[in-house]
Amino acid sequence: MKKRIFFVLFCFTIFFPKTKGNNGNVVYKDTTKIKSQFLAYPIAFYLPETRWGFGGAGFYNFRFKNEKSTSNPSQVQFTFSLTQNKQVIMTIPFELYKSDNLWKFKGEISYYRYVYNFYGTGLSSRFEDKESFKANYPRFRIDVLRRFNKVFAGVRWRVDNMQIVGKKENGLLENGDYTGKNGGVISGIGLVAQLDTRDFIFNPTKGVFMETEIFVNDKFTQSNFSYQRFSLDVAKYLRIKQDHTLAFHVNTAMILGDPIFYDLLYFGSPKLLRGFQDRRFLDKNILVMQGEYRFPIYKWMQGVSFISGGTVAAAYSDIFKNDYKMSFGAGLRFVLNKKDRVRLRMDYGRTINEGGALYITINDAF
User: Which fold has domain 99-108+120-362?
Assistant: First the structure.
């Protein structure tokens, strides 16, 4: 019997700045005018691998001092949770804009002590072979990009100090020939270029976002593993009428060399092929295509329907020959900040043969 996942979420918001009304009570300003906003919400979840987990999540949306109101908003997110099995997630992703969008800083500071699924590699991996392993690691990621007209370009740095424990005895990972199955340091640098013509960085209605990357992990970057990654990520947005948007996304990448198995390309996530279990299919090469229809429902509530297809392969040429896995689903968006178009996202994705998954997070999948 397939294991089920349950989520419970309650939200509250705190907006800054605040003012005092005539009676002394706090009055929150119109979110179309405020420069900063804080939202936090407690979370509770149940996974067979973790049992019950509890914590908090949220974000801080703001602009730096002296930034124009027309500049992109900066955002810092956070998640903290503990589980009955003594797992810990502490993560702070951020995306910051300075000097009227001249500089962009995007990254993550995190610590994970968590359980991940493993099914083997390749498109032929079987759902019934699912096993779990525990990984403990700090993570640091940073992009430093400068804008040249509509293009951001710069450098990327990634570090994970991975300790892998708790593998299934005599399981796929323990017995298989997988690089880095006991962990190691993943440390690499890369060159990144981004074309960005979106009208909004959160929930855009028109424009294009495209990112290309050349990324290297090697001894000279203090990595225990030697491999290179080349990737292309493209999203296109079409406004078909007021508050109705079509969004299309293509993600493809290839890895050369001998990567740690954890850093293989994969789908099955809140961003790629929602509905498949976390890290369901992984290999050295990937191609994913996704489409969404975004539409209004009532005032601060919007709806989304989506469909996705993707494949992975050991050789890049095989991604054009392989079968494609499909998922589909629908979701709700709750408007948290009208001016900057920040949304709380709730999606349910479904697969044809492997059940589905529920996602609750901030901002759209792409």
Answer: Porin (2.40.160)
